[in-house]
User: What shape does this take?
Amino acid sequence: MKRIISLLAAFAVVLVMSVPAFAAPEVTGTAGEYENSDPAGVDGGSVIEFTQSNYVVDNADLFTDDEETALFEKITEIRNEHEFDIVCLTTTSTDGKEDADYTDDFFDYNGYGYGVDRDGAIMMLCIASEDDRSVYISGRGSVGTDVFSSAVLDFDEGPVFKELKPLLSAGDYYDAEMKFLETADERLAGRKSAVSTGEYAYTSDPAGVEDGSVIEFTQSNYVVDNADAFTDSEEAALFEKITAIRTKYKFDVVILTTLSMNGKKAVDYTDDFFDYNGYGYGVDRDGVILMLCLAGGEGNRDVHISGRGSVGRNVFNSKYVLNFDNGPIFKELKPLLSAGRYYDAEMKFLEMADERLGWYADDIANGGTGKVPYPASVILKRELIAVAVAMVIAFFVVSMFKKTMKTNRIRTSAGNYEKPGSMRVTTSNEYFVRKQVSRTAIPKNESSDSSGDHTSSSGASHSGGGGKF
Amino acid sequence: MAGLLEYKCPNCGGHIKFDTAAQSFKCEFCDSVFTQEQLASQKTEAEAKAQNEKSPDVSAAEAEQYGWTTESNGTLGEMSVYSCQSCGAQITTDVNTVASKCPYCDSPVIMTGKVSGLNKPNCVIPFKLDGKQAGNALKSFCRKKVFLPSKFITEHKISEMKGVYVPFWIFDADVNANLEFEATRVRRWSDKDYNYTETSYYNVTRGGTIGYAGIPVDASKSMPDDYMDGIEPFDYNDMKAFDPAFLAGFMADKYDVESSEAFPRAEKRIKNSTEAAFARTVKGYDSVVPRSSFIKPYNSTYKYAMLPVWLLNAAYEGKKYLYAVNGQTGRVSGTLPVDKKKIALMFAGITAGITAILQYFVFR
Assistant: This one.
């Protein structure tokens, strides 16, 4: 008798405990209309509560409970590791909508997406019948659209569906979802490491988005102090200035210090860092980066500034502004860098960038072309040379014509009186006498590197200038 | 043997002159045309007559006797005096004058004594251009001269135009040449520290022969050499054996520069050309510098020739200008006045133009 009661009691307890599971509200796309159509996410999370039932929405009942739990575990891992939302959604119908719309709306209108940018991705499986099955993956936020770009999500050739398609066709839905989550984890991890070491997992050149950069606008991303040249407060101050510039001019300024250029030349290292990490504001990817490599002793450190985008290459043009020998920027920076005052140098750079971007903006506002004018002294010197060259040419031409005014002159040759064919060379000798070698030293102080306008390895056009200090 | 020759037309008694257009001998008055052979008889007559006449040349002693001063046109103080056979006037000419015209009656006279015997020219190129054509040649010369003052063509006045046979020595020479050059070949390369230049020096010799023919040297001290050089070359295909008849109607002087005096000028020209010709055979070097040359003419011969030259004295804005026109080819030598304003204008214009083109590079 006691045994039956304890069994009954246990059964009751289990029943009671499973009530919440059955009572969990079914979250569907259309039914779950949120009050605001597109609620902004908050810093440090999503609007929607982070629960298994919210993030593993198995309306088509493709997974077992255990599978759902396992999926949610992975989703949680990813969220903690990368601050990124992943949603798994299965359904039997897309309610008459296109797959893309259904999936996007589900993500947007339910408040998914981590952080202000609402970074996240959602994989939707619609199994209407054995014959009618579809899958759709969508990414959101700068990270989401970067990690799951259209190229990555290409259904025919993209890497993600290449893996998923066999599994899905075979009906291994759980395996497919797990594969999806693993892929997401990998890609997010690769992206993060790329930012800190400067090697991006992607080999292609991700396009910038309309408003902002592909890479997240954070202090750690925009003041990359790998050589530990700045204190924390200095870094914060630099980032403050960078933010001000970004807000005012919609222009990216990146500060990078390092102890190694990975064997690359300064210009390549700097350009690649900028290109492959997704810096650059807007579709044109306007921005400038100042790179300091502090490995090596005095006189052997490298500085390089590279500009990108039409604004970047114009305001920081190679021929004059970034000219290492006599351009205005390096004129100010060189003494500070040689003295080891790196923070002061960076601040000076940011001030000059702010000023020059201001001139550019004013010039554009006044209908100008925005081209940086050379200073008067340079123009004057060039004009004088031009006039001098012109005068020399004019002198020669005038002399030539003047000569025709006088034809009475003593002749010194008898060339036209030579009897044709009368010349006979009867002796002809050529002896080697001596050899002499002289040499001149090549000036060693090749302090400026060969920058100027160039195309970087990613195919982007950069302006550049830099050298040793 | 002095003799004065005035060719007279057997038909009308007028003066016969060499006609450039017809390239033959024509009577001034009745236009009758004569050949060289026909005139030859008049010449022998005159020469025969001359045996009996006194030389018109006056020596310094005689001049003193007559009370004449002995300074004369840059000669040795000797002058010639003769009487015009047409009008009887007493004419004084330079001792070297061979052909001239009576300033009173314009009748041409030839002093055969000056062009006979040792003084006889070997050949002559007859005039091809008459005075009018010479004037036109000068006008053509003025065309397309950028700095010529625009008024020159219309305002210059030709105060005197003389058709003159200028005496020339014409040299032919074969030449032995031995030349030495220093030649270099340069090789350049660099390593990361230095730029190297290696110069290899070679001693190059060339020897041989070369020939020249027809080098003219002006044999008259009073003719400026630069003008005579300026109207070169003459076409020797038109050269004819000398006959005093060709001189009729023109002025002529005999030489006063000996051939030995004149030859060094030809030699200099030969030397320069020979050096250049042999230097051209030295190939394959980066630089060739002549070090020594030994050039010796052998087989040199010379001719005494009368070459036709029109001398034009022009005046423009108070200044005198001399022009020599090659009486055969029309080539003009002389100095034209220069409009300083035009020079300044061209200089400024080109400077401005080129500066404008270079603006692209100033503002790059």
In short: Chain B touches chain A through 75 residues (CB under 8 Å). The mean pLDDT of chain B is 85. Residues 340-362 of chain B form the longest helix (23 residues). The radius of gyration of chain B is 28 Å.
